[in-house]
Amino acid sequence: MTFIAPIKFAIDLLAVLLLALGIKGLSKVRSAREANRLAAIAMMLAAFGVLLNSQGTIGISINSWIWIICGTLIGGLLGALTAKRVPMTAMPEIVALFNGCGGMSSLLVALGVALFPSSESSDGIVGELIRNFSIVVSLFVGAITFSGSIVAMAKLQGWLSTPSWTQSKARHFFNIFCAVLASIGGIYLLIDGKNGLFLILIASSLLGVGVTLPIGGADMPVVISLLNSYSGVAAAAAGFVVGSQLLIVAGAMVGAAGLILTQVMCDGMNRSLVSVLFGGALGASSASSGGGGGEYTNITSCSPEECALSLEAAERVVIVPGYGLAVAQAQHTLREVTRVLENADIEVTYAIHPVAGRMPGHMNVLLAEADVPYEQLKEMDIINPEFPATDVVLVLGANDVVNPQAKTDQSSPLYGMPVLDVQEARTVFVVKRGMSAGYSGIKNDLFDLPNTSMVFGDAKKVLGDLLLELKELGVGSKG
After folding, report:
1. Is residue 400 among the annotated active site residues?
2. Residues 129/134/135/140 CA torsion (nearest 10 deg)
3. Which of 12, 381, 391, 400 is an active site residue?
4. How many CA atoms lie within 13 A of 293 on its CB side?
5. Nearest partner of 168 among 284, 311, 336, 272, judged by Cα
6. Tens digits of per-residue pLDDT, 378-432?
């Protein structure tokens, strides 16, 4: 079986190269789909390499192959059905679930190696210590990732609310207690590779629940990106356990990318990671802070017809998408509206806030689904200086990310958070179902400004009516 080692090395090398190409391709919308396929092929090759190595070293029985094939077919079928049927509004929940599945996969790999160690593997004391340490890391991080991701998914789906005790200091004692138990289990596991196994599993799972349960919806994008990073760390540790170079490389890249994205999310919300993980829900802190309250006194509402008249006379229009656009599934209708404007030689761009929506990149994916050109999407730092020269801003289901309080009211919980300066435009139209607050639970001063008009209604219906009005006005039909 000496020929197996170079074959496995070649397979792993090819898989690493394909994975690197896949990740590079994800940086552009046009190449993202093909890049995703390359990454999927890379992971299939990695799995095949591990199986090939196992067959050559310890052997795999016919019954084992049956279990492997059945598991692959069932998992592949469930993944395909989920990818086909999940709506864009449920994408954050699916991402959280996939993070959890990644953590559970790493956990199960480490658990299998710990419970059924190979009798042929003898790497000495140092090798055994490295193996046991990798198992501890994979179990600890994998369990936290799985339980935390399930809680995040349940909260996003509305199946689980935030218990009152999690907003008190009791949660810190609970989390510290679980962390101490997990550490004790990890020490025992490091010593002999078996004792403490289930202690670390149970304690880590409870720790994942205890850390994630108090976090509110406003902070969920940060939690999802952090859990994504955790799943990468668990995968890298599992790579050391099974000797898979690709799993180590892929896990390290996912872990690093997740941490970078988490920092970007925190910067976009003007919150530290510590305050997100240990400060509880943003809405809770907002309500008790006393800042940002008050009633609306100068609300101006208008019809889609008035909005269409302003758009017809505009030379430059900026669209600000938010979670309300995703809920209404209005991205395709929005694209029809912007095509009409573009046909009338009206410049259209999209202002993307880093934490708009309920997951990192939510708005980018939503607009890409409607074939919006990627070049029209502009990040906050680029678009903010352009608002004073903008004729019309159309805010669709966004709230906290366009609240001027973040720059004007030092008592507001949002103060210091980078926001889109839409109030600097000549005219602002805000499409909302009603006057409900955003995730922060505070008043939006934008709605009271004299250059802001509210267009009340479901985003899809309002945009549909707006499209009809633009066509009746003959916008975009010239020539």
Report:
1. yes
2. 130
3. 400
4. 7
5. 284
6. 989 899 999 999 999 999 988 888 999 888 888 877 788 889 999 999 999 999 9
Cα–Cα–Cα angle for 377, 378, 381, nearest 5°?
165
Whose tokens are 């250059």? That residue is 451
Residue corresponding to tokens 């997100």: 276
**Cβ pair 223, 212 in contact under 8 A:** yes
Query: pLDDT by residue (tens digit) across 225-273?
Result: 889 899 999 999 988 887 777 788 888 988 988 888 888 778 777 777 7
Torsion of CA 191, 228, 17, 1, to 10 degrees: 30
Strand boundaries in 322-473, DSSP class E: 347-352, 377-379, 392-396, 427-432, 452-456
Residues in contact with 133: Cβ distance below 8 Å, sequence separation at least 6, in sequence order: 190
Give 375 or 288, the one with higher predicted confidence: 375
- Tell me the C-alpha to C-alpha distance, in Å, between residue 313 and each of 52, 370, 376, 387, 450: 66, 25, 21, 17, 19
| Full DSSP string of 132-192 | HHHHHHHHHHHHHHHHHHHHHHHHHHTS----GGGGSTHHHHHHHHHHHHHHHHHHHHHHH
Torsion-angle region of 292 (φ positive above 0: left; ψ -120 to 50: alpha; else: beta): left
CB atoms within 10 A of CB 458: 17
Torsion, Cα of 153, 156, 158, 163 (10° steps): 80
CB atoms within 10 A of CB 293: 13
Task: List beta partners, residue 39.
Answer: none
Q: Are 107 and 138 in contact (CB under 8 A)?
A: yes
Structure-token match 């872990």, residue found: 255
Q: Amino acid identity, residue 176?
A: I
CB within 8 A of 221, min separation 6: which ones?
92, 265, 355, 357, 358, 359, 360, 362
Rounded Cα gap, residues 140 and 134, in angstroms? 10
Q: Which residues contact 251 (CB under 8 A, 6 or more apart)?
A: 106, 232, 233, 234, 235, 236, 237, 238, 239
**How would DSSP label each residue in 316-357?**
EEEEEE-HHHHHTT-HHHHHHHHHHHHHTT-EEEEEE-TT-S
pLDDT tens, 170-209? 888 899 999 999 999 999 888 876 778 889 999 999 999 9
* CATH top class, domain 304-472: alpha beta
Cα 407 → chain centroid: 26
